[in-house]
Specification:
Layout lengths: L2 H20 L8 H16 L4 H17 L3 H5 L10 H22 L2 E12 L4 E10 L4 E11 L2 E4 L1
Antiparallel strand pairs: 1-2, 2-3, 3-4
């Protein structure tokens, strides 16, 4: 959005807010708080998502599937998942299930997955996403998930 259009849009919005406030419709929300929220939405809406952000969201989502026992969705987040032989695919799915069962037994399961950091390696074209796995027994573990973009989609390497 260009600066002039953005300023005119915000000024127009401010004028509308003044009219609404005069009508008593914005008493609960202060004008400054509302404008700050609108500006934050505009700033986020106009910014481009970085590779680190996109890869982090994907990795967090895949591991969220794993933690919830959604092994097929976790599997589909792998590079080359669609070209693996059926027998190997079944072995991987069984391995995921065993891993989650072991974590349930050892640590009362994975309760939360969150992103701690992400670093892009321009030489290899990957983004290393650092995830925190928070277990039910209050233990946390940091893991590294290498991610690669294929066809506009971030996948686990």
């Amino acid at each position: 959005m260009s600066g002039a259009v953005g300023r005119l849009g915000v000024l127009g919005l401010l004028g509308r807010l003044r009219r609404l406030r005069a009508l008593g419709r914005l008493r609960a929300v202060g004008l400054l708080g509302f404008v700050a929220g609108v500006l934050a939405v505009l700033a986020v809406g106009c910014s481009k998502v970085s590779p680190e952000q996109a890869a982090s969201l994907a990795a967090e989502g895949y591991y969220g599937h794993l933690a919830r026992g959604e092994y097929q969705q976790f599997f589909e987040g792998r590079v080359g998942a669609d070209s693996l032989p059926a027998g190997y695919r079944e072995q991987l799915l069984a391995g995921y299930e065993q891993f989650v069962a072991q974590q349930q037994h050892a640590h009362q399961g994975i309760h939360r997955v969150s992103v701690s950091n992400a670093q892009r390696d321009t030489l290899t074209g990957t983004v290393n996403v650092f995830l925190i796995l928070a277990y039910g027994d209050s233990i946390s573990e940091e893991i590294v998930v290498p991610m690669v973009e294929r066809g506009g989609r971030w996948l686990m390497k």
